[in-house]
Amino acid sequence: MDLVPALEEPLKKVLGPPTAKVMAEHLGLHTVGDLLHHYPRRYEERGQLTHLADLPMDEHVTVVAQVADARLHTFASSKAPRGKGQRLEVTITDGSGRLQLVFFGAGVHKPHKELLPGTRALFAGKVSVFNRRLQLAHPAYELLRGDAEETVETWAGALIPIYPATAKLESWKIGKAIQTVLPSAQEAVDPLPDSLRDGRGLVPLPEALLKIHRPHTKADIEDARSRLKWDEAFVLQVALARRRHADAQLPAVARTPKPDGLLTAFDARLPFTLTEGQQKVSKEIFDDLATEHPMHRLLQGEVGSGKTMVALRAMLAVVDAGGQAAMLAPTEVLAQQHHRSIVEMMGDLAEGGMLGGNEHATKVVLLTGSMGMAARRQALLDLVTADAGIVIGTHALIEDKVQFHDLGLVVVDEQHRFGVEQRDALRGKGKQPPHLLVMTATPIPRTVAMTVFGDLETSVLDQLPAGRSPIASHVVPAADKPHFLSRAWERVREEVENGHQAYVVCPRIGDEEVDPKKKKSAEDEAEKRPPLAVLEVADQLAKGPLQGLRVEVLHGRMHPDDKDAVMRRFAAGETHVLVATTVIEVGVNVPNATAMVIMDADRFGVSQLHQLRGRVGRGSAAGLCLLVTEMPEASPARQRLNAVAATLDGFELSRIDLEQRREGDVLGQAQSGARTSLRMLAVIEDEEIIAEAREEAAAVVAADPELRDLPGLRTALDALLDEEREQYLEKG
Fold first, then answer.
1. How far apart, in whole angstroms, are the C-alpha atoms of residue 352 and residue 71?
2. At how many degrees (to 10) do helices 17-27 and 171-181 cross?
3. Is the Cα torsion angle 526, 527, 530, 532 positive or negative in sign?
4. Cβ atoms of residues 348 and 356 within 8 Å
5. Cα 412 from Cα 379, distance rounded (Å)
6. Do 101 and 92 touch, CB atoms closer than 8 A?
7. Are the beta carbons of 677 and 726 closer than 8 angstroms?
8. Torsion angle, alpha carbons of 229, 230, 236, 237, to 10
9. Is the pTM of this model over 0.90?
C-alpha cells in the first residue's frame, strides 16, 4: 500500500528469483511492501498446542504439535513387489486430539530420523481423511529447536506467526522472508493524519508492522491489529468519499415530473396502494431527481418488496420531465421478464405513437444481444429519436452503437452482477451525467453497504406488499430419512392438484462435456458424486414420482427464444413443474408457483437460497420451500440450511452468510480491486471502525479534496487505486 522506494523494491532482488516467483504466482506478492502487508493469519504459542480436533477438511493447514509415536511399515506394491515398499506413520498430538502423518517410499528416511517421540515441530499440509481418520500425507515440517541462547521461558512463551501459505511455500518460509524485509518497515509512510492517529491512540505504521510480524506479547498483536484495521478502513473510505465528492460536483439535469403527465396517469390506475416504505423511498428518489447533481442511490429491498414498482415510477417521472430512462438487467431472461411486466403494468401507457395509445403514452423497448437485426435496428432508432422513453436491456445497452436522445436515469438491477466500470459506461451515454438508481434484492448488512457501495446513498424497502404470503421452509435430509424425500414429491403433486405450480432447482445443467484427459483427483473421488443436474433430475421425475405432470427444463445454455417460450408456458400455467438452474434466482415472477424443491441445497450459498426461495409465495397462496441435502446432521452445511429454514429475514441471513464466508468473496462481488484488498478488516466485526472511518474520511475530503496536505494518504490511495485499475485491465 505504501509506495516508497524501499517498499517498492521488487522481491526478486531481495529474496532471489525462485522464491519471488512462487510469491508472485501463488500469493500475489511482488514488492517488499506487499510482503510486509501479508499478515499472519493467527499465532501459535510455543508452549501451547493447536486444536487438532477442529482442522478443516481439504484445506492447507499449519499446526504446531508434538510427535507421540512413529512406526515404519513395509508392504508389497506394484512398484515394490517383494515387500520392499516403506510407509512411515507418525502420530502427532496436541494433548486433546491426534493426527496421523504418512510418508512413503524414499521420502521416509529423513522424517524417520528426525521425528522422534517428544519432538515438537510445525507441520504443514492438506488435511484428508483415510480410514475415517484425519491425516496429512507427506507434510512439510520445521523442527522447533530452541536456539542455544534461548532460555526455556522465552521459548515456551514466544508467539509463532502462522501465515496464509500455499503448498509451494510453507508458513515458516514466508516468516523467514518477512524477517529479511522487516527492517524496511521503518520507511513506511503513514497514511493516517497525525490528528486522527493521536486522537484514537493508534501506534505509528512502522511500529504496527513490526508488532504484527514479531509480537512479544498478545497486547502487541492487539495494538498492531487496531492500527492496521484503521488503515484499511480509512484509505478505502477516503477513496469512496472522493468519488462521492467528485460526483457531487458534476452537473445533471433536474428531472421534475409534470403535474398531470405519465406518472399521474399511471398512479391513477394502480389497483393497490403503495406501501409506506414504497412511498418513503419514492420521495427520497424524487427529491434526488429534482436536484442539479446526479443522484447515486442504492435501493435495497427484500425479494418481493416492490422495488420494480418504485423504479418504474422513477423512470416515468423522468420521461414526464422530457428525458429517457434505461434499466440494465444481468440476464436476458430477467430483461425479457422486466419488459413484459412493465408493459403489462403500464397497459396503453406503453403504446406511445401507436393507434389506441394513451395521450401521455411512451414506448417501452427491449434491447438484448440475441435479438434479430430488424428488431434491434428499430429499438436503436426509437432510442435516438426519443420515441422510446424507457429501454430495458442487458449489457447490450452499454455497446458503442447504442445512442440516446436524452438519457436522464439509469436503473441497474442486481448490482452485484455489474462492476463499477459497467455502471460508468452506461452513465457515459448521457449528454450530462444521468441520475443513477442501483437495486439489489440481496440484503446487505449496513457495513458492507458502506464498504462495497460507499459511493452511493442507501434506501431500504423492508415491508412486503399486502397480499404476499409467508414461505414455510424445511430441510429434507435425503440420506438419513429417504421417506422425507418421497413426501416432498407428494407435496409437489398436492400443490399441482390444487391448481398451483412448482420449481425444482439443481446446481448443474447436465450436458457438460467430461474431459477424458482430466484425471480425477483424490478429492473428486471423495466427493462421492457430482452435483445433481437439471436434465437428469427432470427425466427421473417425469418417469418417476411426478409421472403424468407436465415437467419442463430451463437453463442458461438454452437458446434465448426457447428460454422465453418455456417461461411463457410456465407463466401461463401450461407447465406444472419447472426444473431449472439458478437462472430463475433473480426477478422471475410467477404468482401461481407455490412450491420449490432445491436439490443438493448445501451446494448453494445462504443468500442464494434466500433469493431462490423468494420465487414462491408471490401470490395469495402460501409458499413452500424444501431444501434437500445428503449432508449429515452435525455438518456445517446442515447448520447453514437450518439457519435458512429458520428465518425469512434476509438481513439476518446475510450476516450469517458473511460470518461463514470470507469477506473477500462478498466484497469481491463488487468487482473492483480496491474492495477486495481487505486483509485485516472484518466487515461484520469491525462495524464501528468502518462507520467512524467513513465520518473521518468525509471530513478530511471536505476540507482538502485533493489531499494536498496529506502526502502519505495520497500515496496509499494511489496504491489502492492502482490495484483497482490493474484488476479492471485484467478483467478486460
1. 85
2. 110
3. positive
4. yes
5. 19
6. yes
7. no
8. 140
9. no
The HSE-up count of residue 514 (CA atoms within 13 Å, CB side) is 5
For residue 614, the SS3 value is coil
**Do 48 and 73 form a contact (C-beta atoms < 8 A)?**
no
Answer for the pair 318, 261: CB distance below 8 angstroms, yes or no.
Answer: no
Name the residue with cell 398512479: 267
C-alpha distance from residue 276 to each of 280, 282, 464 (Å): 6, 10, 10
Most confident stretch, 144-153, 420-429, 711-720:
711-720
Residue 224 has what pLDDT?
A: 94
User: What's the rounded Cα separation, in Å, for the pair 394 and 371?
Assistant: 11
Four-residue CA torsion sign, 316, 318, 324, 328? negative
Instruction: Quote the Cα angle for 275-276-277, to 5°.
Output: 90
Residues 142 and 121 sit within 8 Å (Cβ to Cβ): yes
Place of cell 524485509: 181
Amino acid occupying residue 586: V
Query: How far is the C-alpha of 611 from the C-alpha of 584, rounded, in Å?
Result: 9
Q: Which residues contact 5 (CB under 8 A, 6 or more apart)?
A: 187
DSSP letter, residue 166: B
**Length, in residues, of the chain:** 732
Please give the mean pLDDT across all residues of the chain. Answer: 81
The cell numbers describing 522, all together, are 483424490
CA of residue 368 relative to chain centroid, distance: 26
**The one-letter amino acid at 52:** L
- Strand 98-104 and strand 85-93: the pairing is antiparallel
Share of the chain above pLDDT 90, in %: 28
The set of cell numbers assigned to 538 is 427432470
Distance of CA 619 to the CA centre of its chain: 30
- In sequence order, which ranges of 52-201 are alpha helices (DSSP H)? 109-114, 152-157, 171-181, 194-199
Phi, psi angles (nearest 5°) of residue 144 = -95, 95
C-alpha cell at 666: 462478498
Residue range 253-304, pLDDT digits in tens: 999 988 888 999 999 988 888 888 899 999 999 999 999 999 989 898 876 6
State the virtual CA torsion across 304, 307, 313, 314 in degrees, nearest 10.
-170
By CB neighbour count within 10 A (0-12 exposed, 13-18 middle, 19+ buried), where does 113 fall? exposed
How many CB atoms sit inside 10 A of residue 250's CB?
13
Q: Name the packing angle between helices 276-289 and 307-320 (round to 10°).
A: 30
Residue 699's pLDDT band (boundaries 50, 70, 90)? very high
In sequence order, the 6+-apart residues with CB closer than 8 A to the CB of 580 are 503, 504, 505, 506, 534, 553, 554, 555
Lookup: cell for 161? 506467526
Rounded Cα distance, 174 and 518, in Å: 32
Q: Which residue has the cell 438487467?
A: 329
Task: Collect all residues with Cβ–Cβ distance below 8 Å to 200 and sequence separation of at least 6.
Answer: 230
If you ran DSSP here, which 8-state letter would residue 619 be given?
Answer: S
Cell of 649: 429475514
Nearest to 591 by CA among 275, 302, 304: 304
Q: Distance between CA atoms of 427 and 410, rounded to whole angstroms?
A: 7
Q: Which of 573, 576, 612, 608 has its CA nearest to residue 596?
A: 612
Looking at residue 86, its pLDDT comes to 85
* Whole-angstrom distance, CA of residue 219 vs CA of residue 316: 58
Q: Which three cell numbers stand for residue 295?
A: 443522484
Sign of CA dihedral 639, 645, 646, 648: positive
The one-character DSSP state at 10 is B
Cell numbers 430451463 label which residue?
A: 554
Element (H, E) at 541: helix 534-543
Instruction: Tell me the C-alpha distance between 333 and 414, whole Å.
Output: 13
Which DSSP letter does residue 559 get? -
Sign of CA dihedral 261, 262, 265, 268: negative
Burial class (CB in 10 A: 0-12, 13-18, 19+), 448: buried
